[in-house]
Design a protein that fits this description.
Number of strands: 0
Strand content: under 5%
Helix content: over 70%
Structural class: mainly alpha
Oligomer: single chain
Distance between the termini: 65 Å
Shape: flat
Radius of gyration: 29 Å
Number of helices: 22
Number of domains: 2
C-alpha cells in the first residue's frame, strides 16, 4: 500500500460523505442552495419513464446506506493487518482506478443535483451519463481485481473476498443500475422538453410527444437489459459471477412504473412496453440464478472428477472430496428450502387474490372472467374444487422433501445417492410457482399477452420438473424397488402425481388465456373488453381443438414412447375430465355455443377413452410382465 492509494481512499470517503449530505439537503430543499424539489421537477417535466415516487423513497436510503458501509469497510481496512486488508494486500483488491472512478461518480452526481435543480436538462443528462459510466468503470475495476486473484483469496482469505463482493461490488452495482434508470428518465426529459427554468410550465420541443419520447427510453432500457444479460452470462461471467443487485433494482423500477402508468389515460402504449421490460427482467434474473447454480455445480464436479481421474488418494485429497460433496449437498438443501419458500409465498398470494385483498389486487378473477368472456372456461365451481386439491397435494409433497433433509440417508430422497431430487428439478419447481404467482398480478392488471406468456412459461417449467423427476426415479427404480420401496412410492404419489396434476391444470389455464388473447385487445380501465374482430365461438374452438391435439399426442407419448418413465402417473386425465365435464355443462345453457359444445364433447369422449385405455394397458402390462421397474 502506497501513500497515493491511502490518499485516494480517504478522498473517496470524504467525497462520499459530502455527496450524502448534499443529497439530503436537496431532498430537504434548503433555501439558497436548492430551488426545487425533485418531485416538483418530475411533475413539471412529466414523462412516462419515471417510477412512482415511493420507489425513490425505497431505493435511495438503501443505496446510500449500503455504499456507506462499503466505503467505511475500505477505510477501516487501512488500519488492519495486511492479511485482513483488501487495501494493503498484494495485489490490492482496491486498485487506484476503482478509487478514482468512485470519486468521479459521486462528484458528478453532486453536480447533477445542482444542474437538475436549475433545470439545465442537457447538462443534467450528460452528468448522469458520466456518473453512470464512472460507476460501471469502478465496478469493473473491482470485479477484475477480485477475479484475477480469486483462487488465492478463496483458499486463504475468504472473509475479505466475500466482504468485498457483498459490501462494495454489489453496493456499487446497485447504484450503477439506479443511475442507469435515472439517466434514461433524463433522456426522455431532454427529448420532450426545452430548458424551462423560471417558467411555471415546461416548454415542449413540439417534435415528439410525451408518449413517444418515453417509449424511446423504455426501448433503450430493454436493449440494455438484454445486452447486459448476454455480457454477464457469456462474455464476462468470470468477473460478474457474484453481482446480484442489478435485476432487483430494475424489477422495483419497472414495477413502480407499471403501477403509475395504469392510472394514466394515455399510458397504454408505454404500459405494454414497461410490462415487456419487467417480464424480460424477471426471466433474465431467473435464468441468471439458474446458470449461476448450474455453473457452480459444474465447477465443483469438475474439480472432484479431475482429482479422482488423476488418482489422488492421500488423506488430504479424500478430505477434499468429502468437502466438495458436502458443498454440493449444501446447494441442494438450499434449493429445497428456496422451493419451499417460493411455494408458500405463491400459496399466500393466491389466497390473497382469491379474497380480493385490497391494495394488492384490483379485480376478482370471476369479474375478469366475465369481462373477457369465452367458451372454454369451466364453471366457477371447478376452480373452487381444483385449486385446494392442487395446493394441498403439492404442499404435502414439498413438506415431504423438506422433512427428508433431516432424515437418515437411506430414508431421504434428497440425501440418497444418486439423489431423487436433483437441483434441476428444484429450480424448475421454483420457476413454476414463481411464474404462476407473477401471472396473478399480470392478469389482475389485465395485461393479457404477458399473462399468457407467464402461464405458458409456468406450464413448460412444470413439464420440465415432472420430466426430470420421472427420469431420475425411473433410472434408479430397480434398486429402489428392492431396497427402498417407501421412498420410491412416496416420490411417485406425493411429488410426481401432485406436480402432474398442477401441470395439467396450467395447460388448461394457458389455453384459456390464449383464447382471451385471440379475442380481445388490451382493455384495462375499459368497462367492457375491446374485441379484435374474431368471434368468441371461433377463438374458443381454436383452443379446444388445440387441447384435443395435446391429449392425443400425450396419449401416444406416455403409452408408446416414454412409457417407462410415465408408468405411475394417473392424475392427468381426471383433471381434464373434471374441466371438460364442467365446460360441456356450461355450454349446454348457452344459446350460441352449439359449435363448441360439440368440440368439447368430442374432447371429453377422447379423454375418457384415453384414460380407460391407459389404465387397461397398465393392467395388461403388469399382468403380463409383473411389476416392471426397469
Amino acid at each position: 500500500m502506497n501513500k497515493v492509494q491511502i490518499v485516494l481512499v480517504f478522498a473517496a470517503f470524504f467525497i462520499y460523505i459530502i455527496a450524502l449530505v448534499i443529497s439530503y439537503l436537496s431532498s430537504a430543499r434548503i433555501p439558497g442552495l436548492f430551488y426545487n424539489t425533485l418531485s416538483n421537477l418530475n411533475n413539471k417535466y412529466a414523462q412516462q419513464v419515471s417510477p412512482k415516487s415511493i420507489a425513490f423513497g425505497i431505493i435511495w436510503p438503501i443505496i446510500y446506506f449500503w455504499n456507506l458501509v462499503g466505503i467505511i469497510y475500505i477505510v477501516v481496512s487501512c488500519f488492519l493487518p495486511v492479511a485482513k486488508s483488501p487495501v494493503k494486500m498484494a495485489p490490492s483488491l482496491v486498485p487506484k482506478t476503482f478509487l478514482i472512478s468512485y470519486c468521479a461518480a459521486f462528484i458528478v452526481t453532486v453536480g447533477w443535483l445542482f444542474a437538475f435543480d436549475r433545470e439545465v436538462m442537457g447538462l443534467s443528462f450528460a452528468l448522469l451519463l458520466v456518473a453512470a459510466l464512472s460507476v460501471y468503470v469502478s465496478v469493473g475495476a473491482l470485479c477484475k481485481a477480485a477475479a484475477d486473484n480469486a483462487e488465492a483469496l478463496e483458499k486463504d482469505n475468504k472473509v475479505v473476498f466475500w466482504l468485498m463482493r457483498i459490501l462494495v461490488q454489489n453496493g456499487l452495482s446497485l447504484l450503477g443500475t439506479w443511475l442507469t434508470v435515472a439517466t434514461l428518465v433524463n433522456l426522455a426529459v431532454v427529448i420532450i422538453y426545452e430548458d424551462s427554468f423560471g417558467l411555471e410550465a415546461a416548454v415542449q420541443r413540439g417534435t415528439i410527444s410525451i408518449v413517444n419520447g418515453s417509449t424511446v427510453s423504455l426501448v433503450i432500457l430493454l436493449v440494455i437489459v438484454i445486452t447486459w444479460f448476454v455480457l454477464e452470462n457469456f462474455v464476462l461471467e468470470k468477473y460478474c459471477r457474484y453481482l446480484y443487485t442489478i435485476y432487483p433494482v430494475f424489477i422495483l423500477a419497472t414495477s413502480a412504473l407499471i403501477d403509475k402508468l395504469r392510472a394514466l389515460p394515455n399510458g397504454k402504449q408505454n404500459l405494454i412496453i414497461a410490462s415487456v421490460d419487467l417480464a424480460v427482467v424477471l426471466v433474465a434474473f431467473i435464468v441468471r440464478v439458474i446458470l449461476a447454480v448450474y455453473r457452480r455445480n459444474q465447477r465443483l464436479l469438475v474439480g472432484f472428477s479431475a482429482e479422482c481421474f488423476f488418482g489422488h488418494t492421500s488423506k488430504i485429497d479424500e478430505n477434499r472430496h468429502i468437502a466438495r460433496h458436502k458443498e454440493m449437498r449444501k446447494v441442494q438443501v438450499a434449493l429445497v428450502f428456496v422451493a419451499f419458500i417460493v411455494f408458500v409465498v405463491a400459496l399466500v398470494i393466491s389466497y390473497l387474490n382469491s379474497v380480493g385483498f385490497q391494495g394488492l389486487f384490483y379485480n376478482p378473477i370471476e369479474v375478469l372472467g366475465g369481462k373477457y368472456a369465452n367458451q372454454i372456461a369451466p364453471q366457477p365451481i371447478v376452480f373452487t374444487i381444483i385449486w385446494p386439491i392442487i395446493y394441498l397435494w403439492n404442499l404435502i409433497g414439498l413438506v415431504y422433501i423438506v422433512v427428508s433433509c433431516c432424515l437418515p440417508v437411506e430414508k431421504s430422497p434428497v440425501k440418497i445417492t444418486p439423489t431423487l431430487v436433483p437441483k434441476t428439478f428444484l429450480i424448475c419447481h421454483s420457476i413454476t410457482f414463481a411464474s404462476a404467482m407473477c401471472w396473478l398480478f399480470s392478469f389482475d392488471r389485465e395485461i393479457i399477452s404477458l399473462s399468457f406468456a407467464l402461464l405458458l412459461f409456468s406450464a413448460l417449467s412444470a413439464y420440465a420438473a415432472v420430466g426430470i423427476s420421472l427420469k431420475t426415479v425411473s433410472d434408479n427404480a430397480k434398486i429402489l424397488e428392492k431396497n427402498n420401496k417407501v421412498v420410491l412410492w412416496l416420490m411417485r404419489i406425493l411429488v410426481q402425481n401432485g406436480l402432474s396434476l398442477y401441470a395439467t391444470w396450467l395447460t388448461v389455464a394457458t389455453l384459456l388465456n390464449l383464447t382471451q388473447l385471440i379475442i380481445y385487445d388490451y382493455s384495462y380501465a375499459e368497462e367492457t373488453a375491446v374485441m379484435r374482430g374474431i368471434s368468441i365461438a371461433d377463438a374458443s374452438s381454436i383452443s379446444l381443438v388445440t387441447l384435443l391435439v395435446i391429449v392425443i399426442a400425450w396419449f401416444v407419448l406416455e403409452n408408446f414412447v416414454v412409457e417407462k418413465y410415465c408408468r405411475y402417473m394417473y392424475t392427468i386425465y381426471p383433471v381434464l375430465v373434471l374441466a371438460l365435464s364442467s365446460l360441456t355443462d356450461k355450454l349446454r345453457a348457452m344459446p350460441d355455443a352449439n359449435q363448441n359444445l360439440i368440440v368439447a364433447s368430442v374432447n371429453l369422449s377422447v379423454v375418457i377413452i384415453a384414460f380407460i385405455a391407459r389404465v387397461s394397458l397398465a393392467v395388461y402390462r403388469k399382468q403380463r410382465h409383473g411389476i416392471i421397474v426397469s
